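Re: the request from the purification team.
They wanted to know what the chain is likely to look like in 3D before they choose a buffer screen. I agreed to run a prediction and write the result into the notebook, where they can find it.
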Amino acid sequence: MNFKDFIIKIKENLPPYQKSSLDFGAYDYTRILLDDLIALLQAVDEQEFLNIGCSKEEILDDYNEQKSVILYAIKSFRNGDIIESFNTIYHSYFSTITRKNKNLFFKTVERASPMFRIRVNGSNKPYKYSEMFHIPFDNVHMVTNQRFSLSGYPCLYLGNSTYCCWEELNRPDIERCNFSIFGNNSPLNLYDLSSPNEITTPMDLHRLPLVTSCSLTLTDDAAPFKEEYIIPQAILQSLIRFKNQNPTDVHLHGIIWLSTKIGEGTYFDEKDIMYNYVIPTFNNREGNFCASLCDVFVLSDGMTYQELWLKYPHLFAETGGAGDKDYNLSVFNIIEEYLKSDKILKHSMDEDKEI
């Protein structure tokens, strides 16, 4: 089997593309998935590994080691030793002293890349730009338990499309949504937990066990605790710890991952509109917002779907000629294109002025 077929098999068998329909806990399901990943890797021809500068044995050893680390972290958490669980992930993937893979799995988002955020507003009135930023420090009681979230610790959550944001919010009434566009003033280095489209370097292979372990969907959305969040939350905690302890090392802003909403049931086939970003606040408690993130981003006021439709109904006129899954014809793309236009003012949180 070559790497192209390997990626196809991953999409057919592993998360985030495939969801669990079995009654497993996170420990057992993770073990099964990582065993499946190892079995797929074993079927790849040796020459494929040599072509990218590694060996099959090297990657298999790494997969088995990562499997042991990840399962131990889950087991430690379930046994009540949460500190040991988090420390295990940190020292395996982030510590500059102990981590085996000296290269962190990161990718760079270039300056001025459009990112989006949605907030739901029951009054159908637009939010100001400051209300579209991260949860203020004086409202930390509102920070809930999510996949890449630590209760009480504000982070900024963005998507690379408005559709991805809408799916992540479990498809709220679009007429109650506020849409905002963000732009980064400098490149963002993000810990890459997205499944690769192709295998071109050993690092594309190295990150797959962690990608798989962070992409489980087991529990009902309404459940107050989700076991499948143990590993992704440990990764977020480790990134915050790494940032605080290594200010002169690789500058990591946050995490990028492929939405677990991808796959059957989504309205569009494009994978490249389903990426999420989380950028945690860092050691800045002066005022209500993180000074570091205020320096990094500019953003627009919130705009409601109703406002856009009432002011510019011609934007929603169908251009025709494409299939019903063409994202370019969707309401979401129309909103994005308008937000990216020169008509939209972007504000600086740092200076509180339009730029």
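For the purification team: The chain has twelve helices and eleven strands.
Please add any questions underneath this entry.
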